[in-house]
Amino acid sequence: MYVLLDTLKVCNVNSLFAFRSTLPFPGSQEQYEVFIKDLVWNLFGEGNDVFKEGEWTKSIEMYTEALSIAEYADSEDICVPTRLLEKLYANRAAAYLNIGLYDQALEDCEKALQLNEGNYKALYRKAKSLKEMGRHQEAYEAVAKCSLAVPQDTSVTQLTQDLAKILGLKIRKAYVRSKVRVSEEPSHTIKRLGLFTEKKLTTPRYCYRLLLCHNSYVIFNQLNNNETPMGMAVGMPEVKGLPAAVDLAKNPLAETHEFKQACSACYIKTGPGVLDYTLHTEEHKCRKDALLGRIKHSPDKSWKLIRPRPTKTQYVGPYYICKEVAIGKECLYPGHCTFAYCQEEIDVWTLERKGFISRELLFDPYGPNSNIRLTVPKILQEHHGIFMFLCGVCFDHKPRIISKTNKDDSSLCSHPVTKHDFEDHKCLVHILKENTVRYSKIRPLSPQCQLDLCRHEVRYGCVREDDCFYAHSLIELKVWMMQHELGITHESIVQEAKKFWNATASLQGAQLSSAQRRFGPPNLKMMFVCGQCWRNGQLSEADKNKKYCSAKARHTWAKDRRVVLVSSHERKKWTTVRPLPTKKPIPSQFEICMHVTAGKKCQYIGNCTFAHSVEERDLWTYMKENNIPDMDQLYEQWLQSQKPGWGEETSNNSVRENGKQIHMPTDYAEEVAGNHCWLCGKNCNSEKQWQQHITSEKHKDRVFNSEDDQNCWQYRFPTGTFKVCERFLKGTCTEDELCKLAHGEQELKEWMERREFLLMKLAKARKDHLIAPNDNDFGKYSFLLKDII
Fold first, then answer.
1. Most buried residue among 251, 530, 558, 649 by CB atoms closer than 10 A?
2. Which helix (H) or strand (E) holds 433?
3. What is the pLDDT of residues 306-328, one digit of tens each?
4. Element holding 102 (H helix, E strand)
5. DSSP 382-401
């Protein structure tokens, strides 16, 4: 932060020096206007940064300098945006308040309100200034206007109550909406409110009246649910970090970022670095398969490539910029780096991981003038996996059971006991198989469905389940949008998915033949065998799961226990090849060892950097020319040449496309007879295995902790002691992060919110039978079950 601030200061000092100079500006009038506006924005940003650090006087200096330049710009007929001036006055007022200059704060608030009379921050700070000056009646009138704009703001409510007490006013109770009668069906209540008509949905927007009904319906379900777990709060409280509504049709970065679509024909690499690209704007038929972004009002106007978010990692913390790229060097892992290359990537990835943004909607493709249409292939190209039908009764069972059609009788499901009628109870499911298996149910589209994500399901699981009108996953939302546009049925979706994968398999088959011809030296055949078996003269390759060798002894198929053998067309004899020499620099060409050439045994067999056979020399040369540094990578590429997608941790039938793992429908042909944990993506084939899983520490940690809410909390994790530390308030607490009490009212408030949020997740897990009935041992989360002191 300090390095960044110092850099900004240097840039601003240089800009101010150039601005104050009497020399002519070296550029056009338009460039001069941009220069002036950027200077004001930069000073505004720097003022905000030092304000956050508690340096009120310095922030006032920055805001004042920005306002002075804006006044000068006005004299030169350069218009600085009104909203920027409004923010400068309001923020300077806040700084004046913090150092006790209430007169100046009131003056700045009045100026901000002249520019925008609805600025609630200026109204609130005006009220605080007037209160400190003893003008209580005027302060109350100001904060009353503010409370109309932000009725739920606790700071505004508290100030209103304080002023009402001072003035001797009676504090009235707020009106509370009456609850839905239990005797009335929720669907009848919804229809009676006139929320839905027979007309088709036109735009994916939230309806305020629908949201009220949605929350009332949640309360109705909880009141009528006899199995509501203890600790389950009625209603859905707002949780810090979660917006009031997750509306994918809106771009949450619209105010701060710009986005653009491009392709390899217009976004061209111009240097060795990962950021060395230039966008060409000539007319061409753009495929629009790349996302570009840049931050508004930033001195750097170049477009940055925003790569797909890395998903093949268990990391759940905040994203960081690659350290090599940050210091101007080349990335050590181009194409595989899971760190961001720019701030724009961090901003998009963070919102994507939380489910608050969809990159397809950054360009408003569902606006009135758009011709973009979703299709099954388009959806499967981004959300790899397959659409298929499963038994809906088994899928909705608590805990979940995965059942397909019975092999002996296709009219029944494959569950060994119940054997439900498959055709009557089937449901469409999207199955994604990566490190674990994820099943996303696609419910039928109805007139009541809303084309938005359910904010409760995103965070802790929607208690309404199939009765909810909102999409419970991004894949379900896209399928609904596709059905809304095309009217396609679930049966057609499954057929289209099969056609897509058949076409993909044919393409991969063609690529397989060419890959097999290309890989390895042209005069050599290659195979990997078990090293322990080879010492006994036995050729044993890996089994189909690549965990053991194919011999009866079943030796572990580990990296250090396999060797590579090659056979030339001339000798037709299998020969061992040692790892590539690590001596630096690598010679321009490899030579045969003179001892071997003379027919003798090499005296440096453990460290000899010369080849011990013609075959070894040819393979080493091939590895050097193709940048294959070791035998592990040689093994991976050899597997790819045998069958695309094979690898150390991938299934036999998977393929890869652009570095992403894809799976064929045959990957999902295995039968699952036991329970499935949707939290961990694990299938259990017996009751004993299921009980072991749901009582494991790793599973119970997943109940409370997921990557979706890692960055939603500002303060420490709660300790279970929900009190404010008196020593902290007096400034004498020396325990810092180790203190068991909350350091301030704001931290205590977040602890209470976080407790309610975690209780929601625990209640959802109990409802889905993912927690043993009598299990109350949750480690550091056990305080949830205790009453707050």
1. 530
2. strand 426-433
3. 988 887 676 767 888 888 888 88
4. helix 102-115
5. HS-SEEEEEEHHHHTSSSEE
